[in-house]
Amino acid sequence: MQPGDRVRVERGGVTNEGVLLPSTTRDHLVVKLDGGYNVGIDRDAADVEVLESAVREVDPAAETDDDATSEITFDDDLPTVSLISTGGTIASTVDYRTGAVTAQFDAEDVLRAVPELAGRANYRGRVVANILSENMEPSIWRELAAAVREEVEAGADGVVVMHGTDTMQYSASALSFMLDSPVPVVFTGSQRSADRPSSDNVMNAVCAVEAAKADHAETLVCMHASPSDDACALHRGTRVRKNHTSRRDAFETVGADAARAD
């Protein structure tokens, strides 16, 4: 069984069929379903059947240097926003041979993936992790909090954390309590991957950067406020909840109204 094989995976009474993709961990399988979505499956107790070998050509996943940093030419008239990646599809590119969505990490890659960010700020890029968000754990929260602190100490006027949406609410809440930041810390992600016309990655990224430039010092989650591309909502990290697997406005503020970033 190799990436690029068409497989049928049964686990816990659930069957998924599609193309096996490279995985960032040995403990999980990643399968590109026929409908276009990727699904992560725990290898433990999974029954895998290879239906057809090498239906797609898949290159080995490129190794990334965790905690790597990058920066682009600075404009003294613009604020500096640090882009910290933990994985996810907010600033990803698509390998159209395989259908895989590959997360991009440094500042140059993010600007290529979301060119609408250009001219809004100076950017620094940093990698803390390259994981599926369901694999987030407290040890990575500690690394993420330390990375945010270091970026602020290095002069960042705001921080945007690019994160998978499944566990973003928990990471945002954790950092809300772990950090006493003098600048905005804004989590954002993408409910729909960059290979879909309805992807929300561009608007979420732009709104997150604008929120990271604003005059506040909170940990927030920035995602679509409605199914349309009219505004993003800013949710406090201690009050945010995800309510849907694929809706672009899946996040809500519990017990209060969210702010809007038009």
Helix content: 10-25%
CATH architecture descriptor of the largest domain: 3-Layer(aba) Sandwich
Rg computed from alpha carbons, rounded to a whole number of angstroms: 18 Å
Give the overall silhouette. globular
Question: What descriptive keywords fit this protein?
Answer:
globular; eight-stranded mixed β-sheet; 262 residues; single chain; 2 domains; Rossmann fold; alpha+beta; SH3 type barrels; five-stranded antiparallel β-sheet; 18% helix
3D architecture notes:
With 262 residues, this protein is an alpha+beta fold. The chain has 2 domains: 6-52, SH3 type barrels, CATH 2.30.30; 69-261, Rossmann fold, CATH 3.40.50.1170. It has 4 helices and 17 strands. It has helices at 107-113, 138-153, 168-178, 201-213; strands at residues 6-11, 14-21, 28-33, 38-42, 47-52, 69-71, 80-85, 92-95, 100-103, 122-127, 158-162, 185-188, 219-224, 232-236, 240-242, 251-253, 259-261. The chain has an 8-stranded mixed β-sheet with strand order 6-10-7-11-12-13-14-17, with helices on both faces. A 5-stranded antiparallel β-sheet has the order 4-3-2-1-5, with no helix packed on it. The chain is globular, with a radius of gyration of 18 Å. The relative contact order is 0.13.
